[in-house]
Amino acid sequence: MKLLSYVLLTCFCWFTSQGCKSVLDKEPLAQISASSAYITADDARRAVTATYTPLAGNNWCCTYVGTGYMHWVLANVASDDTEKGGESGSDQLYAQQISLFNIQSDNDAARFAWSTEYIGIRRANLVLDNVPNIQMDAALKNQYLAEAKFLRAWYYINLVKTFGDVPLVLTASQNTYDMERTPKQQVYAQIIKDLEEAAEVLPLASKYPAADRGRATKGAAQAYLGKVYLYMNNFAKAEEWFDKVIKSGEYALHADYMGMFLRAGETSREHIFQVQFLNDQGAQPANNQINIVMASRARNGWGFNNPTPDFVSAFEPGDPRLEQSVYKTGDVMPDGLVANVGNSSTGYLNKKVYVPEYERIAGSLQAGRDDIYMRLGKVLLWYAEAANENGNTTAALNALNQVRARARQGKTGVLPDVTVTDKVALRERIWQEQRVEFGQEYERFFELVRQGRAGKVLRAYGEKYKTAKGAGFRDGINEIFPIPQLEINLSGGKIKQNPGY
């Protein structure tokens, strides 16, 4: 049983069972007191499960469908790797604004990102506030608290990289609109504290039973500590934490690059943290709809997130990852069908989310495909970057070439080992490898920002392709997104807008 199989049960049973004891009850039905909601170990389990639920928000595309942190917009469309796509420029205007860096303070993607991550944080805080008082197995209780700390940190990582300074809410009794923004360095300090404490308690991935696959692990906490330190330009600590993950023996590169993105590859030892979905045909299915967002309009998809020719040209000749990352009309797909990318504005679509016919639910484009956010391939290349910055050239080259060796997938004469030892030249090679290895996996824009070259790269893209995309990027402003105006209004002005918006 997958973790997210509890989502609908949590929403329905927990809330309605508490609110429907009497149809004449005049108390607000949406409120459940801590004294009645946090009593048993099962209550604790459900509360932790509910804390995972906002992770699934990357599915949402349209404002009438729902909300979520839309990684595909904020990390892909904002970058040089992806055009918005869709039916026209006005189709999902919030994504078009981000593509052109003409972003309004009521932008839906920014608004959904803020609200969804704070929903997750509130649920984590409810666990941390109330589960300690439940009489239950001590070891399991400590694990649940560690999971909540990991998840709170995960949501704050997204908030800081998206908005910069944000309110630091650490108890369920606090509300964002009652607080001012906390400097991001203080938020990072709390993220590190949560992740370090989680890493001390969480089980290794191999210690979880199959039914609990998808829960936070020691390796996930360690990997995100490495990523946080990388974003803080603390390369020594980044190298240290990534090294722990690599040397743990828990993870290994998946031999079949594309295979790890299919349902059959969901149990891959490469995966460190992923958001789980179900093959569910219920009235409110808990399956992954991201392929519908990115699938061809010629095959009943919505046609968003079109990989750019610039991304395609970033691959070295013969790199097998190219045809495993994107597809074009006429390509033969894994299920034997001939591709038709419809009206893709670039002629390409994202193959990493393609759902083969044999995975589909009742002939639809939907599937129980997991969203993979942390995997060993990323850790190795981030480790290589940190090691290079620290002067550990041999370690950097070893990690980089491990990834390239897997990328060859048995093909000779392609992707030769990198041997350059100059720090600046090696940094460029590592950054290039990260672009193609992580392609379409919700990293590119924020990677450019942390590397301090977002404006340079995106304006060069606009100039090269004679397009407005990227051309309007303003240094010192567009590295982060606007605080939703609604949140500023709710705070009565306590929350201040980011410069330039």
From TrEMBL:
Residues 270-501 form the RagB/SusD domain. Residues 76-230 form the SusD-like N-terminal domain. The keyword Membrane applies. Pfam families: SusD-like_3, SusD_RagB. Gene3D superfamilies: 1.25.40.390. SUPFAM superfamilies: TPR-like. Keywords: Cell outer membrane, Membrane, Signal. Its main location: membrane. This is RagB/SusD family nutrient uptake outer membrane protein. It is found in: Cell outer membrane. It comes from Spirosoma sordidisoli. One of its GO terms (cellular component) is cell outer membrane. InterPro entries: SusD-like_N, SusD_RagB_dom, TPR-like_helical_dom_sf. Belongs to the SusD family.
